[in-house]
Design a protein that fits this description.
Shape: rod-shaped
Helix content: 25-40%
Strand order of the largest sheet: 1-2-3-4-5
Number of helices: 3
Structural class: alpha+beta
Number of strands: 5
Radius of gyration: 25 Å
Distance between the termini: 71 Å
Largest sheet: 5 strands, mixed
């Protein structure tokens, strides 16, 4: 094999390899994130003079239904923040027909796959603790809605 044929063959192999690498990278970079998961969530029992176990379970279900929007995250634990914190958060309510509940959670943010595009503000490979969920509902109903969430 002549020197020029070796150079042309080598250049072709390098070009094809680079094209495959760029194609793979583009697919990985634009791949959608997986939804957040709740299947291994530990739900701590409630101790409350305000809410029943059913009230609490309905609020927990509301958070679990919402959590898949936290892409690449795993909900580890959910717990009632306590009557004192719930009362503190509801002190500004101007509607006597509304009631509020505060839950706390811990969740883990998974690391990204190689070449995956970072689109969120989450700290990767990190567990967020005491994440608050403020839920509200009209008194006497079981339909909780999440009205606020975050650290604090």
């Amino acid at each position: 094999m002549k020197k020029s044929e070796i150079i042309i063959t080598t250049a072709g192999i390098i070009t094809a390899s680079a094209a495959l690498f760029v194609g793979f990278w583009a697919i990985q970079y634009n791949k959608p994130y997986p939804e957040g998961t709740v299947d291994k969530t530990v739900v701590k029992p409630i101790s409350s003079e305000i809410y029943t176990e059913q009230d609490y379970n309905d609020a927990v279900d509301c958070v679990k239904d919402f959590f898949p929007q936290f892409e690449t995250c795993e909900l580890l634990e959910l717990r009632y923040a306590g009557d004192a914190e719930t009362k503190l958060e509801t002190r500004y309510s101007q509607n006597e027909n509304e009631e509020y509940m505060v839950l706390k959670s811990d969740f883990y943010v998974n690391p990204l796959e190689i070449f995956q595009n970072e689109k969120s503000a989450w700290q990767r490979d990190y567990t967020y603790t005491d994440w608050s969920w403020m839920l509200a509902r009209t008194k006497g109903t079981s339909d909780w809605i999440i009205c606020n969430y975050g650290l604090g």
